[in-house]
Amino acid sequence: MEAIEPKLKIHARTKLFNAQEVDDLVSKTLLRAIENLDGFDGSNLLAWTKTIMDRILIDDLRRTKLIFNYTLDTLQKV
Questions:
Q1: Do residues 49 and 30 lie in contact, with contact meaning Cβ atoms separated by under 8 Å?
Q2: Rounded CA gap, 51 and 67, in Å?
Q3: What is the three-state SS of 9-49?
Q4: CA–CA separation, 60 vs 77, rounded Å?
Q5: How far is 71 from 44, CA to CA, in rounded Å?
Q6: Distance CA 71, CA 76 (A)
Q7: What is the dihedral of CA 11, 16, 20, 23, to 10 degrees?
Q8: pTM of the predicted protein model
Q9: Which whole-number Å values give the CA distances from 51 to 5, 22, 61, 69, in the listed order?
Q10: What is the C-alpha R_g of the chain?
Q11: What is the dihedral of CA 60, 62, 66, 69, to 10 degrees?
Q12: Fewest beta carbons less than 10 Å away: which of 40, 43, 61, 72?
């Protein structure tokens, strides 16, 4: 896993601009990969972890959108 960490950081930097967010995303990705090693088919570790990273980003964006929409709805009622 350590060998792919720099490549994951590069991938994360193409999606995020804040260095702390990049580090957090890489950490979340590696943690989730370790937790789900039984789902890895052994073919391409970097591609598999990039997919995990992209799915984490999508989940975070959905969560942020839900929070943002809830805030807007609340403000419109006031």
A1: yes
A2: 24
A3: HHHHHCCCCCHHHHHHHHHHHHHHHHHCHHHCCCCCHHHHH
A4: 26
A5: 41
A6: 9
A7: -20
A8: 0.81
A9: 14, 15, 15, 27
A10: 16
A11: 110
A12: 43
Report yes or no: 52 and 46 within 8 Å, Cβ to Cβ: no
6-62 pLDDT, tens digit per residue, is: 999 999 999 988 999 999 999 999 999 999 999 999 899 999 999 999 999 999 888
CA diameter of the chain: 54
Question: Which of 30, 16, 19, 20 is closest to 60 using CA atoms?
Answer: 16
Can you give the pLDDT at residue 74? 60
At which residue do the structure tokens 């990049």 appear? 22
Asked if the model's pLDDT at residue 78 lies above 60, the reply is: no
